[in-house]
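Record pair follows.
FIRST:
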Amino acid sequence: MNKKQTQFILSITPLVRILLSRDQFFYYLADEKLPVGTLVSIPLFRKTVEGIVIESKNDFPRVGGITLKKIEKVLEPNFLTKEQLALAKYISDYYVISLGVVLKNFVPKRTKSRSADHVTYNMKHETKNINTIILTAEQEATVKNIAKQDIRYQIPASPAGRQNTRYLLHGPAGSGKTEVYIHSILELKKQNPQSQFLILVPEKTLTPQALERYGAYFPENEIALLSSNLSKGVYFTNWQKIKSGEAKIIIGTRMSVFAPFQKLALIVIDEEQDMSFKQWDMNPRYDARTVAEKLSELYKCKLIHGSATPSIETYFKTQYKQYKLLTLSDSYHPKNVTTQKVRSTIELVDMKKERWARNYSCISKKLKSEIAYALKNNLQSILFINRQGMSNFSVCTNCKTVLKCPLCDRALIYTNSREYKCPHCAFVASAIPNCSKCHGIEFRNVGLGTQKVEKEVRDFFPGARILRLDSTANKEKDFQKTAYEKFSRGEIDILIGTQMITKGWDLPKMSLVGVIDADNMLTLPDFRVSEKAWQDLVQLSGRVSRPGAKFPGRIIIQTYHPENKILTLIAQNNYPAFYEQELPDRKLLGYPPFGKIAKLVFEDYNQKRVAVESDRVYNLLIKEKADLKISVPTDSFVPKIRGRYRRQMLLKFQKQLPKEILIILKSLPTGWVIDIDPISII
């Protein structure tokens, strides 16, 4: 008689949403013991889904005749590393989200790269001007500080006398932060040639420039790119290169934190202030900056936050020795670049005076003359406006009612295609829209957007080569990449766009930045509105007077309130003063960095149900009398999106949510969105 074959019980997390009120795994049987992290195919109810093995043990007698299903197939052993599993568990717990939903982000589509998918990074190894840059004494000291070999790893802060391994590299645009990153990697690579390095950038539009810069120092086969614009085949090929250890330099957007690193030695978060590092519109609503901190802890590696305009929270950590502050001055000038570094100037233009002088254009006389100067000298300009379309909104000429989207209850934007479109959904009004109140058909367009600015600039400068870059234009495949390439080749004279053009483009021929309507950036009822305006405007000003530029840059900021304190500090580029101004109000109200926030939003097509359900949960929360503050439910700033009504409440707490509150949050039904550390409270 044959001895009965030993079976094993596996704890498996399916890559699907599991209710937080129950365990995040199911038990299955297998004929062999499988390593933790193995990818398997399993039956789940009436479907077959993929899952990750999180535990494997010998079978044992089960009381009550309980039977278990068997796994269907082993897809790949050791698919995820132990560090990836630990990181996934951290994200699930911290952001209060199903573990299966989190793990799905760690499992790329496994498909071979077709020949048509092949990408070359177009790296210019022959670009000796980049490859032979000689660091300044200030940069050399900073690199030496980061690359010290005798550092003992400390989390979250170092005791006195020991070196921290988390840094904020603070320096103006063009101060040579990228050179510090690269040379720190070169030094760390000497210490261990098998080390891997992660460079996080906020937008996929910045990856071509990053590839060019890092490609001048490292072989192409050692560089892997991870971003959403890659085909599934190329993405998986790069993912495998990281797992095998072949890829040493990993450049990517926020999703790169999920990669299967082997020997991670350094994480660089470039432009760390950028809110694009936070995934706010879908689960898991993680922040790559927070996840990178946990990643550095798991791999015991160094972490650098780099920015000319660091977030208040990050700068606050340097004041309390959680991060070490490293600064670069604005006097950076590569020794091998023959041109002298030029200085830029920032000027506030009072638009009230423009109106008094009967200039009703959105382009001031000063900005118009600067654009003309740039065109005459074959230089490039950027015009920034934080809105799309031809107008902000349209009102009925008869009863003054605003024309709104029936699905989102938001003002429709008039476009140059003579359509009224919703900025939140795909709704387009009929060719002749009617007023919802008086049924009138005549509307007056109020305000301006990117398309209106483009029209006026084309009227003023008909011979200029103009390109508009906003989310409407960006729907075309690889539009941002194409725009950057055209601009870098000098094929575009004037670039008009929204906040996506504030990112770190490094182009010496850029000489002028015009901010069309700075006041609009300071009107939202959000505690981060001043910080966001500061970051966008200072980042914009950093696009000019780059190393190698021959002409001094000009930044023209148009405003109806030139006396505004924030705008004055921006003109002075005085970050310490701005930081000190922001802290008192935040401390008084318990906002970050003096506390943490969770935003709870309930959405449903039934308006009454939204009101009843949000009140029900609010009453549950306040009964606990836990150590936190809870705001009463209110309509969201955008109370209706795509037909769903929305109400929200804020939870303010210290360090972590109380256990009794977490129990309630984990029991919330479908329709609730839990957003920990939201980028906005509106």
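SECOND:
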Amino acid sequence: MKYLFTLLFTFSLFSSVSFAQEVFVDMPQNQGYIGIPLKLVVVYKDVKTDREPTIPEIDGFTISRKPGTETSSQTTFINGKVTSTSTIKFTYYLTPQRVGSLDIPAITFIADGKAFQTVPKTIEIVETPTSGALKVQVKGTNSNVYLGQPIDMTLQIFVEQFTDKNLGVTLDARDMFSLFSNNSSFGLFTQALQDGRAQVQTIQGTSIEGVPTTFYVYTVQATTWPETTGTLHFDPISIIANYPISLSRQRSTGFFGGSSLTVDQAELISAQAEMPTIEVLTPPENDRPEWHSGAVGNFDFRVVAEPTNVNVGEPITLTMRVTDLSSGPVNLDYLSAPALDRVTALTSKFKVPDKPLGGTIQGRTKTFTETIRPRSGGITEIPPLPLSSFDPVTETYTTVWTNPIPITVETVATVSANDLVGGQVQSTTMEPQQITEVDGGILANYTGIELLQSQTTEVTPALVATITFPPLVFSALGCFILVRRRAQSETSILKSSKKAAIQTILSLSNAKSKEQVQQIAKSLRTLEKDETVSVEIKSLLQRCDAAQFGGFNDSTLAHDAKTLVEHMP
């Protein structure tokens, strides 16, 4: 009996009780605004059916269904009893279509075979308390530009300040800007807004109805550079805002309490900006200098040469710095290097590549490097170099010239085969040393009674194996390691490359083409590490540079190189 009582007590302690089933509508608003959706939530409490509720047509409203459902469950312990409840919420939006008193009649829902009826409700629909004015405009460059010329634009967004009279709250500029939808398109001003480069001011104006009101004006500036000629098409700018109709205070559930403002109702408004039509032009051909490389604007041009003392055919590096002197932001990505290969005063004395150059940008300066080679000896300067640009204001070309750079170019001396081959190697002889013979042979070096003892050792196969096996093993291992190291050593690799270089030089009968000169120069640089002939090889390399880059016709280059390698040790 005692155990039965305990069992019944435990069962009663943990028994579960459910609330009664219920279906009702959650719609606390008593007032709405024409065209602004009102939220109506149908709540199923402790209803197990999968059947969704149906809202009949209601006069004066259009009805739409929010996809999905919200479900929740709750379990509580009260006086030792477990109580469980579950709810399912279905959300609908009722949009008023006219002003006046609109009735929401009692609605009947069928769930779990039971009928549930809601309480009827009347809502007063009025006009929206504000016009929610939103305006967008773009100012700036609105005429034709030349390729390479910047385009400056300014975006201005006007939005009417919102004040909730019931709460006595006015939203500030930051709050109003946060109401712009993510679906808005800001075009070329997107990056500037993301960087926080927008300025805001408050001005007085009139609403759409002509009522005096306050506006926030957001101003953003951006600069772009056209990449091609022709009509420039801008991305559209369209601003969408969830303009508030009413605010509400929500009490925080934290320890310190408090409340926060939220947008209770909002109206979706939008505005588009009219973008200018701009034609991108190419600088005119009339009076265009032949070395013009497309620069548009005002620039400073400076050149540094290094080294300034060279032989014929040796390289001289020109470092060219182009600085944009215009005001405002610059973009040097599309600025091309000066076309030095079109400057006759330079190409007549120097070999100048005609390939396009890349540059490095630092601030308003772009730096290019070019390598030129003197064609002949006796050149005393690098002539003045030009940078031409087109001025879009005066529509004329201007040219900036550098000062001449003094240099010294030595003529490469021709060295004969006899000069390349060194003189006779002097041999040195050593005086023979007198050897003193000691009587008695090797035994004369030792005395003692042990000399009388027998030193004979009996030779056996085991003794022979013991003596000979370890040296043989270590000798074989040492040879293997030595051969392997030698095969991989730098000396072995150098010897192999040196042999290949000598074979290349011996295989060339002349050096009439640039390819043959390049082969000789490459082989000589491999042999340059041999200190016994380094001076002769350096002389031949200078002749290779003169032949390859200076136009020097060296008929004996191949013969002299061959003679040199034949006499190398």
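COMMENT: The two ends are 120 Å apart (CA to CA).
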